[in-house]
Amino acid sequence: MYFPSNTGSIWETKSLSSLGWNQNAIQPLKDFLIQKNTKSFMILVNGRIVMEEYFNGHTATNTWEWNSAGKTLVATITGIAQQENLLNINNKASDYLGAEWTSMPLPKENLITVKHLLTMTSGNDDTKQLVIKPNLTYVADAGTRWAYSNIFQKLTDVVANASGKPFETYFNEKLKSKIGMDGYWNFGLIFTIYHSTTKSMARFGLLALNKGKWNNEQIVNESFFNESITTSQNINPSYGYLWWLNGKTNFMIPNEQAVYQGFLVPNAPVDMYAAMGANDQRIYVIPSKKMVVIRMGDASDPTNSNFAVSGFDNALWEKINAVIN
User: Fold this and answer.
1) Mean pLDDT score of the chain, rounded to an integer?
2) In the chain, fewer beta carbons within 10 Å around the N or the C end?
């Protein structure tokens, strides 16, 4: 397993031919990526770059938004804060946010733990995207309903209050600088979004492939990371701690309460876990293949944009499989 240096721009590569991959399938993959409004695409195997492509004027030095793929950064830094004994995810969120941080009846608010924020099971009204107290109203008891919403952003306040530092300061110290990422957080009124270069997204993907370890340093406790990529509740088996999980019996998607049978991405490896953001920002991690795949860009289908999961994933994996199998 190779890890690029935290300083400098050198990153080892590996040729497609040395892996025995199908060279004839590369151009159809690139054509598909261009057609689907991709700005950058990267494949790592054992940490080495096998494919690195930029389209539509995007370059290796341009930053782009992760959208909800950045939720996995928040989950990871929450785990780091826990291993430093600054917080406990099983404690109620109000231990770190103060009482009456929602508009729920106090007994219902007190049911919400930090873990519920990590698993999208806080029971709040998920139809309102702006995370302000009047919008944080009661729908169900915490832990009884899975609903994808922006309430996860309160985790940045949990970490800030627990650490006594601004969230971005703590994040930069404990994660960003440790693995040589660039980028910055944009704390908007509705969305909290990370922006970085493609290679920085790939660095985080490489950390995730190695279960929280970077080179010889365990950045986030392996047991916490394993929890993050394991079914986190019994409602949506395809969701961990802000990570999406393939290979489960069924799944739910944002903005719906419907349950869909089958794998999240049928064409993808069953052991894949993924960071998924609006407009098809993606980090796919595949332990069985020692592989990380990155996609950044505009929405693959601007007429049918989704917060996270979309049909794009399955179509993309059909093209990737033609290359790697």
Assistant:
1) 96
2) C
